[in-house]
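Aggregate trends can hide what the representation actually does to any particular protein. In the encoding step, the backbone of a single protein was reduced to a row of integers, each denoting a local shape. The record that follows shows the chain in one-letter code together with its fold in token form.

***
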Amino acid sequence: MYASRGTQLTVGLFALAGIAALAYLSLNLGKVEFFTPPSYILYADFDNVSGLKVGDGVQIAGVPVGKVISEKLDNVRARVGMRINRGVHIDDEAIASIKSSGIIGDKYLAIALGPGDKTLDDGGVIRQT
């Protein structure tokens, strides 16, 4: 009638593994970051940012280099803040654009580097969108 101690231990381990898997999936799907890599902030102004969300990726040549961290209305344009990984240099003539990926049409922010000599620092603004 009663389960043996070995059976109770096995069921307990499976329950803990299930709870750990659910916690991992919840944090991963929720795009929760506990430790942000060393980075700096850049901004870009757009006429339309429909579909782009906070947490979406920033890519250069298809390589992830950061994340969108904010969207707000600045005068009549939308100002998008992005966290760029330290070590990635973006010049002052770069072009930022919003693109879609996949069948569902997830959005991401793509940056095309330009021929500029000066790199943008923390708080810099990408002028061409």
